[in-house]
Design brief:
The two termini are 31 Å apart. The protein has two domains: 3-131 and 215-231, 3-Layer(aba) Sandwich (Rossmann fold), CATH 3.40.50; 140-209, Alpha-Beta Plaits, CATH 3.30.70.260. The chain is globular, with a radius of gyration of 17 Å. With 236 residues, it is α/β, with parallel strands linked by helices. The protein has a seven-stranded mixed sheet, sandwiched between helices. 28% of the residues lie in helices and 25% in strands. Bound molecules: ribulose-5-phosphate. Residues 28-33, 89-92, 102-108, 111 line the site of ribulose-5-phosphate (5RP).
Length: 236
């Protein structure tokens, strides 16, 4: 199977396995989570499940949910009341302890809000995303208010990180998130206490949120090139 087929298999498999009628769902973002959204739409359409409402984590998942016929609410809607039954989302990296980085698609802030408000979180990734240490190969995205770009870059560089401003494609200038902020992609110089780093990042004035999910208790499922969908067992 190629990488796209693995993503499709993962999304479809977890939607079929975990989504049940009456659930309040969080809809993740990215090229893997999108397959779960599409499958949920099919399950609704053929009557396998009903009475589903969902919260989108990005403009991408909102558009996909509309196309799939999934009824959307906000986290503040009385029907959701701040809590979800299940969120299905992707990730950029997963370490040996099951810590994640997210935000490759720039949706980390709402993804974090939605994930931590969910009773159950299912993360789906290709096997290539299982790594020994986070932030060495794939940079950690940090969402920053635009006026704080330079002070935050200085603070991150003082921590020894390499920082780059995420630039847009098909638009000149920086990526602007769904929340009107910029993204700094931050590479670590060496393996680090990732939970401590997650906390430290959010103490820098101007940082809105970062893409480390170190305290999230999620089930992680990964797909292999030979077409298996397997549960990852973290070393806790
Ligand atoms: C978006 C995310 C995505 O879930 C993450 O980047 C993985 O995306 P993909 O499945 O396309 O590799 O965090 O902000």
């Amino acid at each position: 199977m190629n990488a796209e087929q693995v993503k499709q298999l993962l999304g479809r498999t977890v939607a079929e396995r975990f989504v049940q009628s009456g659930m309040k769902l969080g809809l993740g973002t990215g090229s893997t989570a999108v397959w779960a959204i599409r499958r949920i739409g099919e399950l609704l359409h053929d009557g396998s499940v009903d009475n589903i409402v969902a919260v989108a984590t990005s403009s991408q998942s909102e558009v996909e949910a509309h196309a799939a016929g999934i009824a959307l609410r906000t986290m503040n809607d009385p029907e959701i009341a701040g809590g979800l039954d299940l969120t299905i989302d992707g990730a950029d990296e997963v370490d040996l302890c099951g810590n994640l980085t997210k935000g490759g698609g720039g949706a980390l802030l709402i993804e974090k809000v939605v994930a931590y408000a969910s009773r159950r979180v299912v993360i789906i990734v290709g096997q290539d995303k299982l790594v020994d240490h986070l932030g060495l190969k794939f940079p950690i995205p940090v969402e920053v208010v635009p006026l704080a770009r330079m002070p935050v870059i200085s603070a991150l560089e003082k921590l020894g990180c390499a920082v780059s401003l995420r630039m847009a494609v098909k638009k000149m200038g920086a990526v602007i998130t769904d929340n009107g902020n910029i993204i700094l992609d931050v590479s670590l110089p060496a393996p680090t206490d990732i939970a401590g780093f997650e906390r430290e990042l959010n103490t820098i004035p101007g940082v809105v949120e970062n893409g480390v999910f170190a305290r999230l208790s999620a089930e992680i499922w990964y797909g292999t090139a030979d077409g298996q969908v397997l549960q990852f067992a973290p070393e806790r």
